[in-house]
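During the reporting period the student researcher (J.K.) took over the structure-prediction task from the postdoctoral fellow and processed the backlog of single-chain submissions. One of the processed entries is reproduced below for the supervisory committee.
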Amino acid sequence: MRVVYIPLDERPCNYLFAEKIASGTPVCLVSPPRDALGDKKIAADYDKIKQFMLDNARSADAYVLSLDMLLYGGIVPSRLHHLSESELIERLSVLREIKTINPDVKIYAFALIMRCPRYSSSDEEPDYYEECGREIFLVGQIKHKMELGLIGKAEGESLLAEYAGVIRDNLTDYESRREVNRSLLIKIIGMLGREIDYLIIPQDDSAEYGYTSMDRESIKIAIREKGLTDVAMYPGADEVGMTLLARAAVENAGISPRIFCDFAHENAPNVTPLYEDRPLGKTLPYQINSAGCVRSEDYENSDIILFLNYPAREPVEVWQEKSAGYDERDLDGFAERIKASVGQDRVSAIADGAYCNGGDAELLKLLGERLNLLDLSAYAGWNTSSNTLGTVICQAVFVFLFGKSKEQNRFLAERIYEDVGYCGYTRAYVTGNILPAMGYDYFNAGESDGEVAAEVKRVLCQYIGTAFPEIAGKYDVAKCQMPWRRMFEVDLSLVEK
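J.K. obtained the following structure tokens:
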């Protein structure tokens, strides 16, 4: 199977994770060259992306396509562009060209509802967001609550006037871009069943009230008006390419893997993860179904056992003090169930959503006392809950379809190095203890392959060597870079010793 893969942006989680999961399997992924994909706020080269898509149309079985990359040049440029609606609509015409060249090709696409962060930072937003980002977020909440009748007109207008002095004329730019992006999403919905075979509309960093939720409701209305029932809308972003890759692979195989879910605590499905607008139990079915799988309540006859490590309540960031909801988990019993599944040679995968922005070292160490961690089928525990779910489900699907391999083992080890080792420990340690003396900070790590990257590699290898010696004993770090020259993400690759 040949899949043309157009990522959301050039970061490893979007550009490389899917390729690593597919490596060594009959699924051949082809992607545009890295230098065509832009660099954070610099948009990708549309003409190169379009030509790459057309050049591969005749030989492709499927496309896994980020429409934010095609339209705007990536996730961050989608929040910064000044492209007209007519220009963007013209860019969508390449999908019709592809279907003309190859009527049998399937196009699996996703397009994000633009996020509205609740904090003031211009790192991934327009420059003015540094000064008034929080106020723009609050304005969105007020307008939404006024629309729903949760805030009276007088109170709402008073608050809006208060924030207007901080936001000044920047709100016009912000809202006009949201309007264009929302209009394009509605246009894209109309292409489903013709140019697009399957569509996901994820919400990036969503909240219950605000601009993102208002856009979602507008899009829901458009979906209903078109009589559609199969457009998935749920929290997510960087994992969706992997979710669609899994769907393309299982549909090509003509099967729907059955997934049995085992939670670290029975109340976990009722917990709303950080940066998401609904409980885990409402998002999980979308993640499973969008990947072409079905949820099963029959453990014995399931194809994949998905262990979900989430707190009983009150989720926190990985660097914060645990809430009481973490100690309510029976981690020993959970680890024993994972051990039993691995011992039965089941496809055993761990979605480690205990913390936001990092893996749960406590669970992994308990498991390391009971089994070889590389005997797991899949593991992920990075950034948001949905990022984690999409990653681990995709790898579990590929292990189910094609078996465990050295490539799958290496990606599994990379997740432990990165999610537990880097995100869970090294990032905060280096930021707090090493960067100040070097003249750097969280948002400025110097060169992508500079002295900060070298320190990150040193601390990370030391941590993994101590915490997970069996992993460190089998793999060396072949690459450790800071792709967006900040501390949030790392570009990490391992090589077997």
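The committee noted the following: Residues 406-433 form the longest helix (28 residues).
J.K. will present the remaining backlog at the next meeting.
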